[in-house]
Amino acid sequence: MSQSPVLEANTAASSIDLFELVESLAADFATRAAVHDRDSSFPFENFQALHQAELLSLTVPREFGGQDAGYATVCRVIEKIASGDASTALVLTMHYLQHSNAARTRRWHPAVYEQLCRESVTGIALLNAARVEPELGTPARGGLPATIAKQIDTGWLITGHKQYTTGSPMLSYFVVWARIDEEEPRVGSFLVPRDLSGVRIVETWDHLGMRATGSHDLILEDVLIPQEYALDVHPLNTFLASDPLKLAGGSLWLSALYQGVATAARDWLVKYLNERQPTNLGASLATLPRFQTAVGEIEALLYANQRLIYSLADDIDRGEYDAKVGLQAQTVKYLATNNAIRAVEIGFELIGNPGLSKKNPLERHYRDVLCSRIHTPQNDAICLSLGKSALKITT
C-alpha cells in the first residue's frame, strides 16, 4: 500500500532534516579525525554527539523507541559519517549491524533484547561482536572457538581471549562467540556487559588504518552472566540457514563506509588541484588535461559505487529482492571497495609526495580505505561463492 501524499511529504522532509544533521556532524568529526588517528585515541565525544542526535537507535525497532531505518537511509548515514571520520563510522556500523541482526533473528531472550534496545535509545549502549581469537583467527574461515562458556546453577561462566574488538573503549556489551564446556560441544553467542567482574580490555590496537576504532583485545576470566544472556546456543554441526538480509546489511553498509572515505579523499584532491599553482605553470593544476582525465576516472569509480550500493539498498527497502540478495550485496562489496581503493590510489599517482605527507588527509584516507579488504567476507571468499553459484556447485 502506498503512502498518502501528506505522509510522503512529511517523510521526505524528515529525511532531509536527518541528512542535514548527519552532514553537520561529519564536518565536526572531520576537525578531530587527524588527531585521533595520530594518537590512536578513541573519539568518545563523537558518540556523545551521535547520541544527542538520536542516531544510535537508527536500526532499533520502533516498538522499543528506535527508528527502524531502511537500508538506504543507513547507508547514507554511514557514508556521510565516514567522510568525516572513518573510525567513528566503523564503530557505528558494527553497532547498527548487531541491532539489525538481533531484530531480524529474534533469537535473544525477549526481555533481554528489549532492555538492550531501550538502553540504546535512552543512552549510549554501544554493542559489537567479539569473535576473532589469537589462535583461531577469523571464524569466517571455520574452526571452533577457544573461548569457553560453562553452565552453572547461577548462569554462565565465560572465559576467553578475543581480538580486534572494535569500539572496545566505549562498548557497553560484547556479543561473545564461545563453545560450551561439554563432551559434545555446542557453540553460541553470549551477551557480556562490560561492567562485570572478570572483563578486561588490553590496549593492543596499533594498526595501519582505522586507528581510532579502539579495536583492542578483550580478556574474559570467569565472567558470570545470567542464564538468559545465552543468545543462540546450538550443536556445532547444526546448519543454521543464513538470513540473506543479514548478509546484505553487513556488505552494503561496509561498502557505503568506504565509499565515504573515498569521497572525502576525492574532495580533498579537488580542492588541492584547484589551489596548487606551480610557478612554472602560472595556473592551477586543475587546468591540466592530465589531471582532469584522472579526476574523471575517480568520478566514474565513485558514480559506479553509488549506483551499485543504493540501487540494491532501494530494492531491499521496496521488498524487491530474492534469496540471492546476500550474495548480490557481497558482490557490491567486492566491486565498491576495490573501486574505492583505486579512486584514492589515483590521487596519489597524480600528486606524488604531498599525498603521502601526514599533514594532508589523503594519506590517512588511503590507510583507512585499505582496511576494506579485511572485513568479512573477504574478496577471495566472495569470488569463490560467485564462482560456485555460476557453476551450480552446491558443496
TrEMBL record:
User: Could you tell me which SUPFAM superfamilies the record lists for this protein?
Assistant: Acyl-CoA dehydrogenase C-terminal domain-like, Acyl-CoA dehydrogenase NM domain-like
Q: Name one GO molecular function term.
A: oxidoreductase activity, acting on the CH-CH group of donors
The UniProt keyword set, sorted, is:
Flavoprotein, Oxidoreductase
Q: Which InterPro entries match?
A: Acyl-CoA_DH_C, Acyl-CoA_Oxase/DH_mid-dom, Acyl-CoA_Oxase/DH_mid-dom_sf, AcylCo_DH-like_C, AcylCoA_DH/ox_N, AcylCoA_DH/ox_N_sf, AcylCoA_DH/oxidase_NM_dom_sf, Mito_Isobutyryl-CoADH
Q: Does the keyword Cell membrane apply?
A: no
Top-level taxon of origin: Bacteria
Protein name from the UniProt record: Acyl-CoA dehydrogenase
Acyl-CoA dehydrogenase C-terminal domain: from which residue to which, for each copy?
Answer: 252-376
Pfam families in the record: Acyl-CoA_dh_2, Acyl-CoA_dh_M, Acyl-CoA_dh_N
Domain (Acyl-CoA oxidase/dehydrogenase middle) spans 133-223
Instruction: Give all residue intervals belonging to the Acyl-CoA dehydrogenase/oxidase N-terminal domain.
Output: 26-96
